[in-house]
Amino acid sequence: MPQPLTLRRALIPAIVLALGAPATLAVNATAAAAADEAAPDDAPAAGVLLLKGKGISQALPAVRLGTDMDVTVTGQVARVRVTQAFRNTSNKWMEASYLYPLPQDGAVDSLKMVVGQRVTVGQIQPREKAMATYEAAKQSGVKASLVQQQRPNMFSTLVANVGPGETVLISIEYQAPVTQANGTFSLRLPLVVGPRYVPPHTLTGQSAVVDAQAVTSAPVLDPKLGVKLNPTSIAVRLAPGFDVANLISRYHKVNVSGPLDDRTVRLAESVPADRDFVLEWRSASADPTLGLFAQHTDKGDYVMASVTPPADLSRLPTPPREMVFVIDNSGSMGGASMQEAKASLIHALGTLRPQDHFNVIRFDDTMTRLFDHSVAATPDQVDLARRFAGSLEAQGGTEMLPALKAALADAATGGGNDPETLRQIIFLTDGEISNEREMMAAIGDDGGRSHVFMVGIGSAPNDYLMERMSTIGGGVYTHVGAPGEVAAKMMPLLDVLSHPAVRNLSVRVEGGSLDLTTSRLPDVYAGRPLVLVGRTDHLAGTLTVSGTIGGKLWQKRVDLTRAQPSPAVEKLWAHRRITDVEADRALGKLDDAKADAEVERIGMESGIVTSRTSLVAVDQTPSRPQGTPLTKEDLPINLPAGWDFDTLFGQNAASAGPDADAAGDAAAMQSQALDLPQTATGFLGLVGQGLALLLVGLTGLAVLLRRRAA
Question: What is the distance between the alpha carbons of residues 463 and 572, in angstroms, rounded to a whole number?
Answer without folding.
Answer: 17
